[in-house]
Amino acid sequence: MYQTGKMEKIMISIFFSPRGTTKKTARAIAGHEGPVQERDLLGRPLTEDLTVPAEEPVLVTMPVYAGRIPQHCFEQLSAHLKGHGGPAIAVAVYGNRDYDDALTELQDLLEGNGFRVVAAGAFIGRHSIFDRVAAGRPDEADLAAMADFGARCREILAAYTPGGDHAPVAIKGSHDLPPHKRVPFHPSAGDRCMKCNACANACPAGAIPKETPWVTDNDKCISCGACIYLCPTQTRQYRGEAYETAARMFEAKCAPRREPEVFF
Ligand SMILES: Cc1cc2nc3c(=O)[nH]c(=O)nc-3n(C[C@H](O)[C@H](O)[C@H](O)COP(=O)(O)O)c2cc1C
């Protein structure tokens, strides 16, 4: 938990950020004007109920995976994040392709669990599989847009009355969702693996065995890239011809700059 400033209400900020841009976004939105209690689902998954009183606002910031929020986060939040009519802010961070139905999925999850979604935003971060896509993002303009969104959210939260009228925010995306999809690319270790187990300890899917951390169980791997981010020798990477071909395709297709979108 980091706490700064003078605002009396604690904001609960929940995020999952294997490669850091989702956390950066959550922090830019939450700002430094009030106490914030962070819950990083990478290091501390939700395994027990987290019940939030109506007076505490919740900010949920998720990376977009195949146009949705990550399936395991969906499952944890659905099962364990419980509201009592308090306000929630839904945020998606995506790699400049599209956020598709991630925000509506998060909105429905939160509303279904007793929160009232008062604002939502989609922001752009470097693509965590194809890292030349949206390289350098979030940049200064993105961070300013996040801070501006956070300021507007604080105004809405200050005026929020639990139990008052609530018209659902109209957010771009579908509410009729098929099962989550997985991506076909998985990081592998090269010959510089020192068996330090940084990757195995961080993997949220239990896909890297501690005894043989140069191996990835691709059936379990969710392709989040936490292992790449943490590897001290940079030996964990995406590799292979199919990956390189897809990377070139994504770089071309996702070259035009997308801009943040906000909904109130
Ligand atoms: C498995 C996976 C699927 C992804 N799918 C999408 C997608 O559908 N659209 C998109 O624009 N970016 C997609 N991305 C990119 C991430 O949403 C983006 O890079 C995000 O900022 C990663 O957050 P992090 O840095 O906190 O890990 C995907 C990334 C991963 C790992």
List the helices and strands and how they pair.
Layout: E1 2-3, E2 11-15, H1 21-30, E3 35-40, E4 50-52, E5 58-63, H2 71-80, E6 81-83, E7 87-94, H3 102-112, E8 116-124, H4 140-158, E9 188-189, H5 198-202, H6 226-230, E10 236-237, H7 241-253, E11 261-263
Parallel strand pairs: 2-3, 2-5, 4-6, 5-7, 7-8
Antiparallel strand pairs: 1-3, 8-11, 9-10
Helix pairs in contact: 1-4
This protein binds flavin mononucleotide.
Textual characterization of the structure:
It is a single chain. The chain has 264 residues and is of the alpha/beta class. The protein folds into two domains: 2-164, Rossmann fold (3-Layer(aba) Sandwich); 188-251, Alpha-Beta Plaits, CATH 3.30.70.20. 28% of the residues lie in helices and 19% in strands. The chain has helices at residues 21-30, 71-80, 102-112, 140-158, 198-202, 226-230, 241-253, and strands at 2-3, 11-15, 35-40, 50-52, 58-63, 81-83, 87-94, 116-124, 188-189, 236-237, 261-263. The strands form three sheets. The chain has a seven-stranded mixed sheet, sandwiched between helices. Strands 4-6 form a two-stranded parallel sheet. A two-stranded antiparallel ribbon has the order 9-10. Strand 7, helix 3 and strand 8 form a beta-alpha-beta unit. Helix 1 (21-30) crosses helix 4 (140-158). The longest helix has 19 residues, at 140-158. It is globular. 40% of the residues are buried. The model is unreliable at 1-7 (pLDDT under 50). Bound molecules: flavin mononucleotide.
